[in-house]
Specification:
13 strands, six-stranded mixed sheet, alpha/beta, five-stranded mixed sheet, Cytidine Deaminase, domain 2, 2 domains, 7 helices, 277 residues
Protein backbone atom coordinates (compact mmCIF):
# COMPACT_ATOMS: atom_id res chain seq x y z
CA UNK A 1 0.00 0.00 0.00
CA UNK A 2 2.27 2.79 -1.28
CA UNK A 3 -0.41 5.27 -2.33
CA UNK A 4 -3.55 6.79 -0.85
CA UNK A 5 -6.34 8.54 -2.75
CA UNK A 6 -7.19 12.17 -2.04
CA UNK A 7 -9.92 14.43 -3.36
CA UNK A 8 -8.67 17.52 -5.14
CA UNK A 9 -9.73 20.43 -7.29
CA UNK A 10 -7.77 21.10 -10.45
CA UNK A 11 -7.68 24.57 -11.97
CA UNK A 12 -6.82 25.33 -15.58
CA UNK A 13 -7.47 28.70 -17.21
CA UNK A 14 -10.99 29.60 -16.07
CA UNK A 15 -12.19 26.08 -15.39
CA UNK A 16 -12.22 23.92 -12.29
CA UNK A 17 -12.81 20.19 -12.09
CA UNK A 18 -12.97 17.80 -9.17
CA UNK A 19 -10.50 14.95 -9.19
CA UNK A 20 -9.21 12.07 -7.13
CA UNK A 21 -5.44 11.72 -7.10
CA UNK A 22 -3.27 8.88 -5.82
CA UNK A 23 -0.52 10.32 -3.62
CA UNK A 24 2.52 8.57 -2.22
CA UNK A 25 2.17 7.67 1.45
CA UNK A 26 4.72 9.08 3.88
CA UNK A 27 4.58 7.61 7.39
CA UNK A 28 6.88 7.56 10.39
CA UNK A 29 8.74 4.39 11.34
CA UNK A 30 10.34 4.42 14.77
CA UNK A 31 13.39 2.18 15.05
CA UNK A 32 14.27 0.93 18.52
CA UNK A 33 17.64 -0.70 19.19
CA UNK A 34 18.20 -2.64 22.40
CA UNK A 35 14.95 -1.34 23.89
CA UNK A 36 15.80 2.31 23.26
CA UNK A 37 14.52 4.64 20.51
CA UNK A 38 17.29 5.15 17.95
CA UNK A 39 15.67 7.13 15.14
CA UNK A 40 12.41 7.84 13.35
CA UNK A 41 12.51 7.47 9.57
CA UNK A 42 9.91 9.11 7.38
CA UNK A 43 9.38 6.59 4.60
CA UNK A 44 6.92 4.94 2.25
CA UNK A 45 5.55 1.83 4.00
CA UNK A 46 6.55 -1.51 2.53
CA UNK A 47 9.79 -3.50 2.55
CA UNK A 48 10.45 -2.16 6.04
CA UNK A 49 12.74 -5.05 6.96
CA UNK A 50 14.93 -4.32 3.94
CA UNK A 51 14.88 -0.60 4.74
CA UNK A 52 16.03 -1.14 8.32
CA UNK A 53 18.70 -3.69 7.39
CA UNK A 54 20.05 -1.38 4.69
CA UNK A 55 20.12 1.55 7.10
CA UNK A 56 22.01 -0.55 9.66
CA UNK A 57 24.63 -1.29 7.02
CA UNK A 58 24.85 2.13 5.38
CA UNK A 59 25.07 3.98 8.70
CA UNK A 60 27.65 1.60 10.17
CA UNK A 61 25.35 0.59 13.01
CA UNK A 62 26.06 -3.10 12.41
CA UNK A 63 29.68 -3.93 11.58
CA UNK A 64 29.17 -7.31 9.90
CA UNK A 65 27.08 -7.57 6.73
CA UNK A 66 26.60 -11.27 7.44
CA UNK A 67 24.96 -10.60 10.81
CA UNK A 68 21.20 -10.21 10.54
CA UNK A 69 19.61 -9.22 13.85
CA UNK A 70 16.09 -10.32 14.67
CA UNK A 71 13.65 -7.58 13.78
CA UNK A 72 10.23 -7.38 15.39
CA UNK A 73 7.44 -5.33 13.78
CA UNK A 74 5.89 -4.08 17.00
CA UNK A 75 3.04 -1.76 16.22
CA UNK A 76 0.57 -1.00 13.47
CA UNK A 77 -1.70 2.00 13.05
CA UNK A 78 -5.38 1.87 12.09
CA UNK A 79 -4.44 1.47 8.42
CA UNK A 80 -2.32 -1.58 9.14
CA UNK A 81 0.95 0.33 8.59
CA UNK A 82 3.86 -0.66 10.81
CA UNK A 83 4.95 2.28 12.97
CA UNK A 84 7.55 0.73 15.31
CA UNK A 85 10.27 -1.87 14.77
CA UNK A 86 12.58 -3.21 17.46
CA UNK A 87 15.94 -4.90 17.20
CA UNK A 88 18.25 -6.53 19.71
CA UNK A 89 21.87 -6.18 18.62
CA UNK A 90 24.67 -7.59 20.79
CA UNK A 91 27.24 -5.01 21.85
CA UNK A 92 30.02 -6.79 19.96
CA UNK A 93 28.07 -6.42 16.69
CA UNK A 94 27.43 -2.67 17.06
CA UNK A 95 29.51 -0.35 14.90
CA UNK A 96 30.57 3.26 15.34
CA UNK A 97 27.38 4.44 13.69
CA UNK A 98 25.38 3.42 16.75
CA UNK A 99 27.20 5.81 19.04
CA UNK A 100 27.22 8.74 16.61
CA UNK A 101 24.99 11.58 17.73
CA UNK A 102 21.68 11.50 15.90
CA UNK A 103 18.43 13.32 16.55
CA UNK A 104 15.23 11.30 16.66
CA UNK A 105 13.80 12.40 13.31
CA UNK A 106 15.29 11.33 9.98
CA UNK A 107 13.25 12.83 7.16
CA UNK A 108 12.63 11.17 3.82
CA UNK A 109 14.30 13.83 1.70
CA UNK A 110 17.77 13.43 3.17
CA UNK A 111 19.05 10.85 5.60
CA UNK A 112 21.72 13.23 6.84
CA UNK A 113 19.04 15.65 8.06
CA UNK A 114 18.34 13.53 11.13
CA UNK A 115 21.86 13.97 12.43
CA UNK A 116 23.18 16.67 14.68
CA UNK A 117 26.53 16.63 12.88
CA UNK A 118 27.93 15.33 9.60
CA UNK A 119 29.04 12.04 11.13
CA UNK A 120 32.11 9.86 11.00
CA UNK A 121 34.23 9.88 7.88
CA UNK A 122 36.58 7.08 8.89
CA UNK A 123 36.10 5.39 5.52
CA UNK A 124 38.08 8.15 3.78
CA UNK A 125 41.43 6.85 2.58
CA UNK A 126 39.78 3.61 1.48
CA UNK A 127 38.69 2.98 -2.08
CA UNK A 128 36.88 0.49 -4.29
CA UNK A 129 39.62 -0.99 -6.43
CA UNK A 130 37.57 -2.76 -9.07
CA UNK A 131 39.16 -3.38 -12.45
CA UNK A 132 35.98 -4.46 -14.26
CA UNK A 133 34.62 -2.22 -16.99
CA UNK A 134 31.05 -1.37 -17.88
CA UNK A 135 29.57 -1.17 -21.35
CA UNK A 136 28.03 2.29 -21.67
CA UNK A 137 25.34 0.90 -23.96
CA UNK A 138 24.11 -1.18 -21.02
CA UNK A 139 22.98 1.82 -18.97
CA UNK A 140 19.83 2.70 -20.90
CA UNK A 141 18.51 -0.85 -20.52
CA UNK A 142 19.14 -0.78 -16.75
CA UNK A 143 16.97 2.29 -16.32
CA UNK A 144 14.25 0.70 -18.45
CA UNK A 145 14.28 -2.33 -16.15
CA UNK A 146 14.11 -0.11 -13.07
CA UNK A 147 11.27 1.89 -14.60
CA UNK A 148 9.30 -1.32 -15.16
CA UNK A 149 9.43 -1.89 -11.39
CA UNK A 150 8.23 1.60 -10.43
CA UNK A 151 4.62 0.60 -9.84
CA UNK A 152 3.95 3.23 -7.16
CA UNK A 153 5.51 5.98 -9.27
CA UNK A 154 3.27 5.13 -12.21
CA UNK A 155 0.27 5.58 -9.89
CA UNK A 156 1.30 8.66 -7.95
CA UNK A 157 4.37 10.22 -9.55
CA UNK A 158 5.62 10.70 -5.99
CA UNK A 159 8.22 8.01 -5.38
CA UNK A 160 11.88 7.57 -6.12
CA UNK A 161 13.45 4.28 -7.13
CA UNK A 162 16.75 2.48 -6.79
CA UNK A 163 17.88 -0.81 -8.30
CA UNK A 164 20.93 -3.06 -8.20
CA UNK A 165 22.28 -5.06 -11.12
CA UNK A 166 25.11 -7.38 -12.03
CA UNK A 167 27.64 -6.07 -14.53
CA UNK A 168 25.82 -8.12 -17.18
CA UNK A 169 22.55 -6.27 -16.49
CA UNK A 170 20.74 -8.87 -14.36
CA UNK A 171 18.28 -7.16 -12.00
CA UNK A 172 18.97 -8.17 -8.39
CA UNK A 173 16.67 -5.81 -6.49
CA UNK A 174 14.46 -2.79 -7.19
CA UNK A 175 12.71 -0.70 -4.54
CA UNK A 176 10.64 2.47 -4.29
CA UNK A 177 10.19 5.05 -1.55
CA UNK A 178 9.26 8.68 -1.15
CA UNK A 179 12.89 9.27 -0.14
CA UNK A 180 15.80 8.61 -2.49
CA UNK A 181 18.11 7.43 0.27
CA UNK A 182 15.35 5.20 1.68
CA UNK A 183 15.00 3.46 -1.69
CA UNK A 184 18.77 2.88 -1.72
CA UNK A 185 18.71 1.49 1.82
CA UNK A 186 15.87 -0.85 0.87
CA UNK A 187 17.85 -2.17 -2.08
CA UNK A 188 21.00 -2.71 -0.03
CA UNK A 189 19.03 -4.32 2.76
CA UNK A 190 17.32 -6.68 0.33
CA UNK A 191 20.70 -7.64 -1.15
CA UNK A 192 22.06 -8.42 2.31
CA UNK A 193 19.01 -10.43 3.35
CA UNK A 194 19.05 -12.42 0.10
CA UNK A 195 22.80 -13.02 0.18
CA UNK A 196 23.34 -11.21 -3.13
CA UNK A 197 25.30 -8.14 -2.02
CA UNK A 198 28.54 -9.50 -3.49
CA UNK A 199 26.86 -9.89 -6.89
CA UNK A 200 25.86 -6.23 -7.19
CA UNK A 201 28.07 -4.12 -9.46
CA UNK A 202 25.75 -1.30 -10.56
CA UNK A 203 23.35 0.85 -8.54
CA UNK A 204 20.83 3.00 -10.41
CA UNK A 205 18.76 5.76 -8.83
CA UNK A 206 16.01 8.04 -10.03
CA UNK A 207 16.48 11.74 -9.49
CA UNK A 208 19.71 13.40 -8.47
CA UNK A 209 22.70 12.02 -6.57
CA UNK A 210 23.81 13.46 -3.24
CA UNK A 211 27.08 12.64 -1.53
CA UNK A 212 25.18 10.45 0.93
CA UNK A 213 24.03 8.08 -1.81
CA UNK A 214 27.63 7.84 -3.01
CA UNK A 215 28.67 6.83 0.52
CA UNK A 216 25.91 4.21 0.74
CA UNK A 217 27.06 2.82 -2.61
CA UNK A 218 30.65 2.71 -1.36
CA UNK A 219 29.77 0.97 1.89
CA UNK A 220 27.87 -1.65 -0.11
CA UNK A 221 30.99 -2.21 -2.23
CA UNK A 222 29.23 -1.32 -5.49
CA UNK A 223 31.68 0.25 -8.00
CA UNK A 224 29.20 1.78 -10.49
CA UNK A 225 26.52 4.36 -9.65
CA UNK A 226 24.18 5.83 -12.26
CA UNK A 227 21.47 8.48 -11.88
CA UNK A 228 18.74 9.99 -14.03
CA UNK A 229 19.51 13.57 -12.95
CA UNK A 230 22.42 15.69 -11.78
CA UNK A 231 25.01 14.93 -9.12
CA UNK A 232 26.00 17.43 -6.48
CA UNK A 233 29.58 18.70 -6.43
CA UNK A 234 30.21 16.80 -3.21
CA UNK A 235 28.85 13.61 -4.74
CA UNK A 236 31.44 13.87 -7.53
CA UNK A 237 34.22 14.66 -5.05
CA UNK A 238 33.36 11.61 -2.93
CA UNK A 239 32.97 9.35 -5.97
CA UNK A 240 36.47 10.31 -7.12
CA UNK A 241 37.86 9.79 -3.63
CA UNK A 242 36.14 6.47 -2.95
CA UNK A 243 36.72 4.79 -6.30
CA UNK A 244 33.17 4.87 -7.66
CA UNK A 245 32.43 5.38 -11.35
CA UNK A 246 29.61 7.91 -11.26
CA UNK A 247 27.23 8.50 -14.18
CA UNK A 248 24.53 11.17 -14.22
CA UNK A 249 21.99 12.57 -16.70
CA UNK A 250 21.33 8.98 -17.82
CA UNK A 251 18.38 9.52 -20.12
CA UNK A 252 17.58 9.54 -23.82
CA UNK A 253 20.45 7.11 -24.40
CA UNK A 254 22.91 9.63 -22.96
CA UNK A 255 25.17 9.54 -19.91
CA UNK A 256 27.81 11.78 -18.40
CA UNK A 257 30.65 10.13 -16.49
CA UNK A 258 32.10 12.29 -13.69
CA UNK A 259 34.61 9.96 -12.05
CA UNK A 260 36.82 7.00 -12.92
CA UNK A 261 35.97 6.87 -16.64
CA UNK A 262 38.76 4.31 -17.05
CA UNK A 263 36.16 1.71 -16.04
CA UNK A 264 34.15 2.39 -19.20
CA UNK A 265 34.76 0.35 -22.32
CA UNK A 266 36.74 2.50 -24.74
CA UNK A 267 34.98 1.25 -27.85
CA UNK A 268 31.74 2.71 -26.51
CA UNK A 269 33.15 5.98 -25.20
CA UNK A 270 31.63 7.91 -28.10
CA UNK A 271 28.24 7.51 -26.41
CA UNK A 272 29.33 9.56 -23.40
CA UNK A 273 28.18 13.15 -23.22
CA UNK A 274 31.22 15.41 -23.26
CA UNK A 275 29.32 18.63 -22.73
CA UNK A 276 28.04 20.00 -19.45
CA UNK A 277 24.47 18.82 -18.91
Amino acid sequence: MATRKYQAQKFESNSMVKAVDALTIEEALQININNKPFTVSMRTPGDDISLVRGLLHSEGIVKNAKFNPDLVLKKENEDGIVTVVSLIIPKEELGEGYSNSRSLLSVSSCGICGRTELGELSFLGKTIDDKKKIDINLLNGLFEKMNDQQHSFHQSGGTHAAAAFTLEGELLSAMEDIGRHNAVDKVIGKLILSGKLNKASVLTVSGRVSYEIVIKCFKAGIPFLAAVSAPSSLAVDYAKELGITLFAFCRDERATCYSHPERTKNNHSKNLDTKAS
